[in-house]
Write a structure and sequence with these properties.
Layout lengths: L3 H5 L7 H20 L6 H14 L22 H4 L1 H4 L3 H21 L5 H20 L4 H16 L3 H15 L15 H17 L7 H22 L9 H9 L6 H12 L11 H17 L9 H14 L6 H15 L8 H8 L6 H17 L8
Helix pairs in contact: 2-6, 2-7, 6-7, 6-8, 7-15, 8-9, 8-15, 9-10, 14-15, 14-18, 15-16, 15-18, 16-18
Length: 389
């Protein structure tokens, strides 16, 4: 251990450029290994076709088995977001898309009002999950970035930007709406709400530029209906519902309405809000950011392995932003999350454990659940006033 620590303290590991280059290489590797020159990455094909279906006034949520398997689950606004990539040659667009995903989260973390040491730690800690999301060309990387960026903007009193990030996330994958949980930390709450209404209207109307108002309204209606149907299908899907909900169902083998989990979870999530006296402390605010990032994954039936870049970001933030020194038990939980929640589905995990235990029982959610419960306990009991030097 005495030889390992000095090695990881080399300037190479604490240089932002090192991680930028690494993530860029991860994007290119993912494009080559999972997409290939002929771009057979199903998710990305779905994404590109959202734009072309919108241009042709086709349903954005119907099945098109002659084009790809599965179907689109993103809001109509996504058709505008993906449009530049849909217009490029496929392989070039895939590389540009994956690099853009990396850039979004990288920039969001760099803009966090934290020390360089904390940001470097977060960047390294989430790197494996970034790779997992890149392999699936997942927009979840951007969702994590938008949640973080929305709080950062509020902290800097940039309510217009915060509202844009919140509504951009909400109108592409709904998750972003949880950025409103940071409203109590805004110094101009009504202004933030007003900007949310404004950006919501802009993003609602934006896809009409390449289609029509009637078509877009119908697609929003179809989007919500599709999400409701998908929620019921996710309950028994092996590669979906990798959440606390899915883990509970798979371990117990019991069939029950998810509302029995969601109501207590919502109560626990809201429980720390009574500590109004802590709102002004940055540690408490970052704790809520971490809680939001974990909750998105833990209590969504749509959670999948590649979405854990969101939850792992929350774990990293939880660990580095507390105003007290983290305990040995906290370090053990951190390592537990890295091994099971981050590397649990990777080839580094022995197959007998990965395929025989972790995947069948959705145990990727277990460390995140334990950390989230500890986080809620901390938010309800600990003092977040900064320690005096």
């Amino acid at each position: 251990m005495s030889k390992i620590r000095p090695f990881f303290r080399l300037p190479f590991f604490s240089d932002y450029r090192t991680i930028a280059i690494l993530w860029g290489l991860l994007a290119i590797i993912a494009a080559l290994t999972k997409g290939g020159f002929d771009v057979h990455l199903n998710n990305f094909i779905i994404f590109r076709q959202v734009f072309w279906h919108m241009v042709d006034f086709k349903s954005l949520y119907a099945y098109y088995p002659e084009e790809y398997s599965d179907h689109n689950l993103y809001g109509p606004l996504f058709g505008i977001i993906i449009s530049p990539y849909a217009l490029m040659p496929k392989f070039i667009s895939l590389i540009c898309w994956l690099l853009s995903l990396c850039a979004a989260l990288y920039a969001a973390i760099l803009r966090m009002p934290l020390s360089k040491k904390c940001k470097i730690f977060i960047l390294w800690f989430v790197s494996n999950e970034v790779l997992g999301a890149l392999f699936m060309a997942q927009f979840n990387i951007v969702i994590a970035a938008l949640i973080i960026a929305s709080y950062t903007a509020i902290d800097r009193d940039k309510n217009g930007w915060a509202a844009m990030f919140i509504m951009l996330g909400a109108m592409t994958k709904l998750y972003g709406i949880l950025g409103l949980a940071f409203l109590p930390f805004s110094r101009h709450k009504l202004r933030l709400i007003g900007y949310c209404v404004l950006w919501g209207a802009v993003f609602f109307a934006l896809p009409m530029i390449i289609s029509s108002p009637e078509y877009i309204v119908s697609q929003y209606s179809e989007w919500f209906a599709t999400l409701v149907d998908k929620n019921s299908l996710n309950a028994n899907a092996f590669y979906q519902n990798i959440s606390f909900i899915g883990m509970t169902h798979r371990i117990t083998g019991a069939e029950f309405d998810d509302i029995w989990i969601l109501i207590p979870a919502a109560a626990l999530f809201l429980l720390p809000s009574y500590r109004i006296g802590q709102y002004g402390y940055k540690g408490f605010q970052w704790a809520l950011v971490a809680s939001v990032l974990m909750v998105i994954i833990l209590f969504s039936t749509g959670s999948e392995s590649s979405g854990y870049v969101i939850a792992i970001s929350g774990v990293a933030i939880w660990y580095v932003t507390a105003p007290w020194k983290r305990s040995t038990a906290d370090l053990v939980l951190l390592i537990f999350a890295l091994v099971i929640s981050s590397f649990g589905h990777s080839d580094l995990m022995p197959k007998i454990i990965k395929n025989g235990v972790i995947k069948p029982y959705a145990l990727k959610a277990l460390p995140i659940t334990i950390i989230w419960l500890k986080l809620i306990w901390e938010m309800c009991t600990r003092q977040y006033r900064p320690l005096k030097p």
